[in-house]
Fold these 2 entries.
Entry 1:
Amino acid sequence: MASEVSRIMKEIKELKIQGARRVAAASAKALAISVKKSKARDLDSFFKEIEGTGSKLISLRSTEPMVRNTIRYFVARIEKARTVEDGKRIAEETLKRYDKEFTESFVKITKYGSDLIWDGQTVLTHCHSTTVNSILVHAHKHKKIKVICTETRPKYQGHLTAKQLSNSGVDVTMIVDSAVKHVMKSVDLVMVGADSVTAEGALYNKIGTAGIATIAHDMRVPFYSATQIYKFDPITKLGKMTEIEMRPAKEVLPKPMKGVKIINPAFDITDPLYIRAFITEAGIIPPQSVGNAADEYIRI
Ligand code: RUB
């Protein structure tokens, strides 16, 4: 395997590349590199190689349907090749097309999400979502907004959120995750990203999201998730659940504590009942319509 591909895989695993969009984009890049560098002499071994790299990329973060959808997007096109050289050309073209579609949907979501925030409002966010950050920076350019972000235990992705927002001039305040209830009275809306969206409109996002949604619901604060439709998980149409990635205990406690067990789920599930809408490239979609939008939009 090319060293650049191994490096990308390692960075995904260690969360140096984190967040569903960045993980999917990096996986697309890694697959395209491995196709380009393939030394396979016949189509059979070429396809096997692609399948192997694709499966490896998918296995790195198990709660990421966007990676699975991305790999399927590539494989479905490359599999039409008649020769290895043809396959390499198709992979290159697919990467260009994928990047273009990826950027276009991101621009749309940024605009739709920003339109939901009114002048003078305070938005609470959790973890680090490139999608939500883009919305908040865009909104800040056109109106006066405040942002409250959680630090996001155990890996503190909220630090990156705070840093990026502050560098862009956004008024940002960071809280510990357990302070969400305390601050909710001064929040006008909650906006988080998404890792997986299911057929019934449930949301998988960073651990802690479901608790925030419950508090927002109790206090009548609208809760939105900004997501590309490619985060829809097709297996949920068949009644299966997206898997929740369990991460190493040392992320919670670097040195083990005698007699103490640790579990470290990376994500949790927010009930559709608590979600006002998903902000997608297809518009602002209520949870019950997400499955239809996915049928319409996902072109694999
Ligand atoms: C990141 C996370 C983000 C979503 C959306 O978790 O939960 O909210 O991935 O991000 P982790 P984006 O840090 O474990 O990857 O909008 O950038 O796709």
Note: Residues 84-115 form the longest helix (32 residues).
Entry 2:
Amino acid sequence: MDSMEKNSPLPSRLPASAPLGKLWLVGAGPGDPDLLTLKAARLLESADLVVHDGLVGQGVLDLIPPHVERISVAKQRSRHTMKQELINELIVREALAGRQVVRLKGGDPFIFGRGGEELDAARAAGVACETVPGITAAAGCAAQAGLPLTHRADASAVTFVAGQCKDLSDQDWSGLAGIGRTLVIYMGLATAAAISDKLIHDGVSPDLPVCVMERGTTAQARALRTILTDLGDLVLREQVASPALIIVGEVAKRADALDCLGAPGIATQIDAVLLRNQI
Ligand code: SAH
């Protein structure tokens, strides 16, 4: 009997006698293993196979017991990320073979996580599939920096967008940022300058506060504040590394500027920009 059967009344766990496998789409949260759900932690214990991507924090991977097989589909030096179709095939094949397969994804599986495609593949193959939500990067980063994504004084709407998509300039982002709104951009590091130009071109104030959160919820986290017009330069100047999130809106001025020790430090120079612009 495994630890899940001993400790947990999870209704979705199949009886040991059933030969059927199952696919679990599990959110690993943004990095800090303490942000994993109890259900996710139990599933890591009872899985036969964990298939994870590169965003899953090392602290979370360390929770996978040694007897559980694990496969990384992350980008590695020798090869690119495994194609989505191959990942779909892998997880479906293993579940059809009777295994309990945990597909572990950074953040939440259904927020820029391609969890929907994997669920579709499971449904098409007749594989039982259950999704376990995770804390998405926006929520984790915002909490760590003390930056409320909504605030009665500053924002009554929040939007998540993907910055790294083709034809950025053709997309209509008007109305997503500005007064009373918070815009959270995932995968926007490489296109930060273009995003800033686009928003300003669409009529958003160049002085709107911005917070860039790097490696949120980890010990190496940085929260860098600036204003929209400086976003592209900030990313270069501070050599912001992936994964990073860009938060645009009045609420960004409320963020605690964090350096990697969680204390005000490197961000002081950014605050000078804010002061100059009287934010
Ligand atoms: N499913 C994930 C998002 C995957 S897309 C979720 O719900 O969070 C990958 C993007 O998420 C990264 O490019 C980055 O923009 C963001 N991200 C993920 N983890 C992050 C972290 N710890 N700190 C900052 N941004 C993060």
Note: The first helix runs from residue 3 to 7.
